[in-house]
Amino acid sequence: MTDKFELSVISAESKVFEGEVESVLVPGMVGDFLVLSNHAPCISSIRPGFLEFSEGSSSKQRYFVSGGIIEVINNTVSLLVDLAIIGDKVVKEDIYTLISEIDEKLAIPDITSKDDLGLRKNDLEEALKQV
Amino acid sequence: MPSLKDLKIRIDSVKSTRKITKAMQMVAAAKLRKAQEAAERGRPYAEKMRVIVSNLASSVKNVTGENNFLGDGIDSKKFLLIVATAERGLCGGFNSSIVKLAKSRIAELTSQNKEIKILTIGKKGREQLNREFESLFVDHFDLSDEKTITIETARKISKNLISRFEKGEYQVAEIFYNKFASVISQIPSSYKLLPVSFNEEEAGADSISFNFEPDEDEILKEIIPKSIATSIYSVLQENAASEQGSRMAAMDNATRNAGEMIDKLTIDFNRSRQAAITNELIEIISGAEAL
Fold this sequence. Notes:
The complex is a heterodimer. By secondary structure, chain A is α+β, with helices and mostly antiparallel strands. Chain A contains 2 helices and 8 strands, in the order ββββββββαα. In chain A, strands 1, 2, 3, 4, 5, 6, 7 and 8 form an 8-stranded mixed beta sheet that branches. In chain A, helix 1 runs antiparallel to helix 2. By secondary structure, chain B is α/β, with parallel strands linked by helices. A 5-stranded mixed beta sheet of chain B has the order 3-2-1-4-5, sandwiched between helices. Chain B is elongated, with a radius of gyration of 28 Å. The two termini of chain B are 32 Å apart.
């Protein structure tokens, strides 16, 4: 039995999830990482991918997130996400839309963050494989 | 003295006006409720975002470079004023109160010899500012196609603002809108969007040292556009709720005024009808006496 901590997943338009969980697997910008209770305070950005958390040993929930930011402090984890879809409901179309948005941006000749966008596209394509 | 027929026509026309204003009031009430709910749903995100930015900003100690989003903007010369108003009228003093506030700020900045640019959201404010300040306009966002404010709209506006900021078109951005205090009271307010300033209090948490991943600068680059979009989003939502509240109050007033007018006209109508009857009777009687 592991200790539980507060997790809230919030998108700009609504609260997606709020409750006590045992662990969260977060697709961090530099790599996936697992947050358990008593994690050191941290702030990290998130790349598009799957967010996984378990409320107990049996129940696991999966959300697709399209990037955002995570804050861990005093056993409270807050995830601010741009878009979150429950794992089962993710359809490839959603991800395709995100990819095509990036393609649109890449088509603009003098955009500065081409590398970033390229990486993000890779992430999305990676996520697509997991669906 | 207008004839009976004239009065009848006027009463009918005021009655139909009252019907319209009543309907508009009820529609505004329903929309207000929706707008308030949406604003409520967006609040946790906005609050958390502010806390994270404050935390982040207080740990980014030495920030350098020209495109710096952080600071207090005290010595800045170039100002961008964003005037967020409604797309529709008939909402009392909603639009003009925002424009009035913006105008007083323009006057203040002009007297300090600052360079001013204006960006408008919502065509009502643009129309009102057009006469005096057309030369200062840089861009306009039309929201008339949007039934409800979405975060996408806010992101679009924020992107536009940031690219202008990076090009050095302005150093300080202030947005003007109506703060939603209650259904009957909306306060015209301004909010500084850029540069992002922070106060230590908001960071709270007794300045815990965070681990940042990747590093502060990277996260800051990620989060500033998001935080600006969030601010714009909540401003637009407050504005939308205020607009509906203001319209509801204005239409309530109009409905009441129409009711009073109908009462007055009905009395006039009854009086002239009575006068006409009396007149006729007198004519008949005096006719009969003459025989």
